Amino acid sequence: MTRTPFILKNPSTLVMLAVLAVTTLAVTLTSQAYGTGALPTSTVKILGMTLCLALAAVAMDLVWGYLGILSLGQMAFFALGGYMIGQWLMYARTEGIVAPQLAQSPIPPTPQEVRDAVTNQIFGVVGSSDLPLVWSFAHSLPLQLLLVVAVPGLLALVFGWLAFRSRVNGVYLSILTQAMTLALALWLFQNDSGFRGNNGLSGLQNLPGLDDVDQATLSVWFLWASAGALALFYVLAAWLVSGKFGSVTRAIRDDETRVRFLGYPVEGFKLVVFTLAAMITAIAGALYYPQAGIINPAEMMPIASIYLAVWVAIGGRGRLYGAVIGAVVVSLLSSWFTGGRAPSIHLPGYVVNWVDWWQVALGLSFVLVTLYAPKGIAGMFDLIGRKEDRA
Fold this sequence. Notes:
Strand 3 and strand 4 form a beta hairpin. Strands 1-2 form a two-stranded antiparallel sheet. Helix 3 crosses helix 4 and helix 3 crosses helix 9. It starts with 10 loop residues before the first helix and ends with a helix. It contains 13 helices and 4 strands. By secondary structure, the chain is mainly α. The longest helix has 30 residues.
C-alpha cells in the first residue's frame, strides 16, 4: 500500500504554492529587468518585501494560531535578522569603497589599516573609532548568515525557557514578549550599543560585488528569493501542523492543563515552536531589509509586532494561508493608502486624507473582524466549502 505524499493530502498548500509561482512569474515577466517593464522597480520591491512580511505572518500564526501564544515580540526577531545581514552588507560595501582609495597611497595599506578605515567610516557618525565586539564577524558572509538564525534563535530559546518553565501564560506572557521587544529596541537606540544607535544601518540595497547589476535586476532576484523562502517555510509549517505534533500544539492551545496531565512535555512543545518561529521570522527580516535599504531600532518597537498580529487576525489565525492573505492584503493596502495614491474623500468642511486616517481604518477593521468574523478572511473559504458540500 503506497503512502500518499504530504503535499497531495493538503490541497490548500498546493493552491498556495501555485498562486505564489504564478504571481512570481507574472511579476518577472512584467518587470523592467526581465519583462515588458509595465511594473516599475519600486513596485517589484514592494511585492518582494510583502512576501517577506507574509513569511513573518506564517511564523506568527504558528505561535499564535496553532500554539495559542500571542507573541508581541515577533518583529524583534525580524529586525535582528535584518541587523545580522545588514552588518555584512554595510561592512563589505564600505570596505569596497575604502580599500581602493587606500591602495592609491605610495605605501600599500596593511589589513589593520583597512579595518580601521572601515570602522571610522561606519562609526564616525556616532563618534566612535573602535569596531564593536558585536561586529567581530561582519567581514564574513557565511558567519553572518549563521548569526541570522543563531542570534534570534538563542534569544527565543532563553526567553522561552525562562517563561515557559515558570508557566507564564495568557496576557502576562504577551506583556513579557512586549517588554523584551521594548527593552531590546531601547538598547539599540543607544549609540554605544554597537549598531549605530538611531542612525541604524543604511545603504543595504547595494550588494557588495554586484555594483554592475542595476536595482531593477536586484529587485527581481530578491523577489525570487523571498518567494522561494515563503514556499519552503510554508510547506515546512504545513507539514509540522498536519501531523501528531500539530495536533498536540492545538491541544495545548485549547486546554494546556489537560495536555500536561496526559503526560506530554508542554514546555518542550512550546519551546520548539517558539524558537522555530523566531528563526523563520529572522530569515524573513534578512530578506526584507536589503530590499528596504535601511534598518533602525524603530523597526523593532512593539507596535510593529502588534501590526503583525492584526494581519494574522484579519487573514484568519489558525490557517497558514489566512496569515499569508492577511499580510499581503493589509500590507499592500497600507502601501497604497500611506503612499498617497489613494484618493482623498471630500466631505462638507473636511477632507479625509488616507495618509492620516489609514491606521484608524486598520484598527476599526481589526475590531470588526474580531467581533463579527473571528475566522478572518480565510473564514470565507469555509463558507464557500460548506455551500459546495450542500450542493
